[in-house]
Amino acid sequence: MKFQSQLFKVISMLTIALFLVIAPLGNHADAASGIKSTKIVTTANKVMGTKYVYGGTTTKGFDCSGFVGYVYKKVGVKLPRTSGAMYKTGKKVSKKNLKAGDLVFFNTSGRGISHAGIYIGKGKFVHSSSSKGVSVAKINDPYYWGSKYVGAKRVAKVIK
Residue range 3-18: average pLDDT? Predict the structure, then answer.
């Protein structure tokens, strides 16, 4: 009886350990196989014009990271909630190597990463701004975004 109890504990611990190792891999299954950049851009375009709401994560209103998280969740990739936390994920991408679907980050507050968007190609990104809601802007805009740009991350395998 004592042997069966110990065996049960060992099997239970091994099962839990295996689950803890394998479970995180499940969140990135789509990312590993690839997501079409057109799917990301189309998903973002579907909510174009949605108003800005601080802390918003739904089509009733988005803040910047709520919008980015919403789009990526729709294509099967779970991201952290805030732009700062998103910036800590993925692979760094230089500005000259940006591809549609890459996340772009800005310092609009003077205190580090405070804004995020999704690069859509041709020097443009889609984001949720407090003044225009979900809209498109130029990454090198000389009047605002150009000087606020911090960097970009590739958080999923994006294919054409």
Answer: 45
> Which residues, including other chains, have CB under 8 Å from residue 28's CB and lie 6 or more apart?
77, 156
Residue 81 tokens read as: 């909630």
Distance CA 62, CA 69 (A): 10
The count of domains in the chain is 2
Asked if residue 83 and residue 63 are part of one domain, the reply reads yes
| Averaged pLDDT score across all residues of the chain | 85
Q: Which tens digit of pLDDT belongs to each residue from 91-147?
A: 999 999 999 999 999 999 999 999 999 999 999 999 999 999 999 999 999 999 999
Claim to verify: residue 8 and residue 78 sit in the same structural domain: no
Catalytically annotated residues:
64, 115, 127
Distance CA 99, CA 128 (A): 19
The alpha carbons of the chain give a radius of gyration, in whole angstroms, of 19
Residue 25's pLDDT band (cuts 50, 70, 90): very low
Q: How many CB atoms lie within 10 A of CB 96?
A: 5
What whole-number distance in Å separates Cα of residue 78 and Cα of residue 47?
Answer: 18
Structural domain boundaries enclosing 17: 1-29
Q: Please indicate, yes or no, whether residues 49 and 115 belong to a single structural domain of this protein.
A: yes
CATH code of residue 128: 3.90.1720.10
